[in-house]
Design a protein that fits this description.
The complex is a heterodimer of chains A (184) and B (109). Chain A has helices spanning 6-13, 27-38, 57-65, 84-89, 99-117, 130-137, 171-174, and strands at residues 49-54, 76-83, 121-125, 143-152. By secondary structure, chain A is of the alpha+beta class. Chain B contains 5 helices and no strands. The relative contact order of chain B is 0.12. Classes of the chains: A alpha+beta (184), B mainly alpha (109). Chains A and B meet through loops of A and α1 and α2 of B.
């Protein structure tokens, strides 16, 4: 069965983790995650993104205050940023070129799957105030925070759900094969 | 209802950061995230109250916060359930207001 292969198992068993223990994430593990981000595709190999790692509890809690989407208390975060100076050097038109955001997503997914493989919980986060995060991290003006990956050791969660609610859409509902029929 | 402090200035500053950040991102986030931020802010308020010992009203605040934190995430996978939860919550809070003798109708009388 294809689903038994390790990479499929990693993808299939990953869940967004929003409840974390207080146990810190090892810096070795964070280094592994940065390597995973670096392995992600980059349009035209322009590599215009930077990764800011934060593992100080108090600083993360302050960032949480300006990040309404951070529902739990992660013990580490990785902020994926666009380096606008590097973008200029590479001739990237940030206002028009959507591949830069696609690259952010690819790097984030690599981090999330690698975290799961390392036994860590992870959760994507885009619901945060860019201005707030910039101010708290004293980011240079060339960096634009785009996406945060929350990390930590998961607390087993019991989801309260109404009966009959399904979390997965059927493949048939989300996919199509070949050309669509001609409109009559 | 007791007169004890429910929110310190430090708490208020945290809440202010949360609310202003929510206002900022609500400009571009999906419409339903606005109600989500408000109900999540209600959970924050309950958390602050609980951290300052609400005494004999602890059970109400704990139950409120627990229910919000369990059901707010329905936004992600059960939108009808999320809407129903939002519709029911004000009635529960108003019931507590009435029990505390603070309901607008009681004040008017």
């Amino acid at each position: 069965m294809t689903d038994d292969r390790p990479v499929f198992q990693t993808m299939k068993t990953w869940r967004a983790v929003r409840a974390f223990t207080e146990e810190a994430v090892w810096r070795d593990d964070l280094q592994h995650l940065l390597r995973a981000a670096r392995w992600a595709p980059s349009a035209g190999n322009r590599r215009i993104h930077k990764f800011v790692v934060v593992d100080e509890r108090e600083l993360i809690e302050k960032i949480r205050d300006v990040a309404p989407g951070m529902l739990g208390h992660p013990t580490a975060i990785i902020v994926i940023c666009t380096d606008k100076d590097k973008a200029i050097v590479e001739g990237v038109k940030l206002a028009l070129d959507t591949t830069t955001w696609i690259d952010v997503g690819a790097a984030a997914q690599n981090i999330i799957l690698a975290a799961h493989e390392l036994g860590l919980g992870a959760c994507p986060l885009t619901s945060f105030s860019r201005a707030g995060v910039r101010a708290l991290l004293r980011m240079p003006g060339r960096l634009e925070p785009e996406y945060i990956v929350q990390l930590g050791h998961r607390v087993p969660e019991t989801r309260v759900m109404r009966a009959g609610v399904s979390l997965r859409l059927p493949i048939e509902e989300i996919s199509f094969w070949g050309a669509f029929p001609e409109e009559t | 209802m007791s007169e004890h402090i429910a929110l310190t200035e430090a708490d208020a500053l945290e809440l202010l950061a949360y609310l202003t950040a929510s206002a900022d991102i609500s400009l571009f986030e999906p419409e339903l995230y606005g109600p989500f931020r408000l109900i999540d802010a209600a959970s924050h308020v309950a958390g602050y109250v609980l951290s300052h010992d609400p005494g004999d009203r602890r059970a109400f605040w704990e139950a409120l916060k627990t229910e919000i934190d369990q059901k707010k995430v329905w936004l992600m996978w059960d939108r009808p359930g999320f809407r129903q939860f939002l519709a029911e919550m004000p009635g529960k809070v108003a019931g507590e207001l009435a029990r505390a003798g603070q309901a607008p109708a009681a004040e008017a009388a």
